[in-house]
Amino acid sequence: MDMILVLKALILGFIEGLTEFLPISSTGHLIVFGSLLDFHSTGKVFEIAIQLGAVLAVVFEYRSRFTNVILNFGRDREVNRFVVNLAIAFVPAAVMGLLFSKMIKTYLFNPVSVAMALVIGGFLILWIEKRTQSRPAKVLTVESMRPRDALMVGLAQVLALIPGTSRSGSTIMGGMLWGLERKVATEFSFFLAVPMMIAATFYDIIKHRDLFTMADAGLIGVGFVAAFVAGLVTVRALLRFVSRKNYVPFAYYRIIFGGIILLTWVMNWVNWSE
User: Fold this and answer.
1) What angle do CA 29, 33, 37 make, to 5 degrees?
2) Could you list the residue ranges that cross the membrane (predicted)?
């Protein structure tokens, strides 16, 4: 393998792991940095596949919980409710993704669209954080979530199909706006990432299987491992962070980062490739 390509895959893997669970859009960052590094994969398969590495970091971090689900599904009422809630939240984005993913990848997978979504999302986070400060949370644990709570989170996740919006940002903010406590919304977003990203990864790999080469597999492997390591660190750090702070700093990051991209585009300082 070309060592320059390996280094680029490593960098993008770390970026994926660091941003997948933060409300700043991992897909958006991969598109922007992929453009800067001149790294482009056919059908965005690399970018989708390495997300699985970050998602497996959640499985590892919550391995005892997922083991309990596997062993007790169908026998434990609490486990059954948890699985049903995940299924309900999974469906809206899965259906919309199947219907519109090709159109979205064609027209919105570019740095300028990502930058606009980052800025708009940043202002929405500021508004939601301010709005929820004056309202006590109604749902204080993941176990106490009802199907309609899960449905609202799932509907919010549909927005994440727009690159730059952020899957975690849309589910966490949507959950908080609906009444989930901040940490509850964050943890449920982690859990929801597992079926969502596994389904998206295998769908894209199967869809583009004829385009794979051994070099692709090697680069995906490098990015996968980097995303897993960075994802594990990020999950642990984010849970500690939200137990004491809010998401306002991420909102300002989105606005500044997206604003810089738009400024360089308007001033023609950077030739952002589509």
Assistant:
1) 165
2) 45-62, 82-101, 107-128, 188-206, 218-239, 251-270
